[in-house]
Amino acid sequence: MNDLIIQNIQELILPKSTDRPLKGRELDELTIVENGTVVVKDGKIVYSGPHTEEYEAHETIDATGKVVSPALIDAHTHLVHGGSREHEMALKRQGVSYLEILKQGGGILSTVKATREASAEELFKKAEYNLLTMIHHGVLGVESKSGYGLDRETELKQLRVSHRLADKYQLDMKHTFLGPHAVPAGRGGEEFMQEMIDFLPEVKDYADFADVFCETGVFTIEESRRYMQAANDLGMRVKIHADEIDPLGGLELAIEQHAISADHLVAASEEGKRQLHDSDTVAVLLPGTTFYLNKDSYADARGMIDNNGAIAIATDFNPGSCVTNNLQMVMAIAALKLKLSPNEIWNAVTVNAAKAIGLDAGTINTGDRANIVIWHAPNHQYIPYHYGVNHAEKVIKDGQVIVDHDLALK
Ligand code: IZC
Ligand code: ZN
């Protein structure tokens, strides 16, 4: 006997199972079954496809008028951090830029101070609340970065908190070391970078990826290259915050270093975008950040897709440049500002997001882990359309309903 049948699904979204990220035109290909059925046993998908009465189960959920999809994956977050930066809103209103705030010792450096001062327990509680918010919004796969310590002790504190969350909730999580996230006050970039490189052999036991913020006034292309090479030599996969604000050639460096992903890419060069053609490096686009930084120009998602690039979309949730952990909101911004089609958006937050962080997730085909969302929405276009609110009605992890939103008032 099976455990669960989800029946009468108005639209069942089935991204393709694949070994490689979906690229170029493949991103617009998505199977959407009308009147679908999903069958689950022992936490795994037994069947997903057109309506059938062939299966029996202990429990049935009627999804008439609803959309069902794989649980979402948030492939870029700064989940574990101390404090918050609402005081920077006033500076932003006065036109002080993100990099200017950082230069004045604020921005990332103000979160570093708060994160150093917070106990592991305080960091855990805060990150747990934010993670639970993500889960309530339909996310069951998360990448979580360090980077607010800039010293051994605090970076490890953040990574341990991230692991504790993954263990407690048995989630698909990946942990990323982002030691070179900013240059601490009074230090030189090159010399601090060497300290982070020397730290890699120890950090390797705690982190799946090594990441770096390559940006004007932060780390140069040369410093980033040395770091990525050192991580690659140790057998760590690499990521890079690339071309977020200024076009430094971070995308080309990511491809050269076989990065699993290159993230941001708002200012990526034409040459970098051209090189995506023959690369499996996933361009992780973070349009919620462009929105929150009040920029006019967004990443050239269409150009990247035209060049046969692989793209994913993520929140970049962090206390400074993108203060939302609602990936559905970012799906709406991607529709409007990146001009992605609904199919491209769904692939970008499921299967391709999983590829960007080396997870085997984002699909609900036979044999897959039964991580599923039932959406209070009549069709798949509706979710990026009705923006800023939560459409996830039920979140199912390993076949168990762990979130069940009931709007009836108490
Ligand atoms: O705290 O500002 N861009 N790192 C690079 C960030 C944004 C996070 C932050
Ligand atoms: Zn980031």
Automatic annotation (TrEMBL):
Its main location: cytoplasm. Binds 1 zinc or iron ion per subunit. Pathway: Amino-acid degradation; L-histidine degradation into L-glutamate; N-formimidoyl-L-glutamate from L-histidine: step 3/3. InterPro entries: Amidohydro-rel, HutI, Metal-dep_hydrolase_composite, Metal_Hydrolase. It comes from the Bacteria. Fe(3+) binds at H76, H78, H241, D316. Zn(2+) binds at H76, H78, H241, D316. Belongs to the metallo-dependent hydrolases superfamily. HutI family. This is Imidazolonepropionase. The gene is hutI.
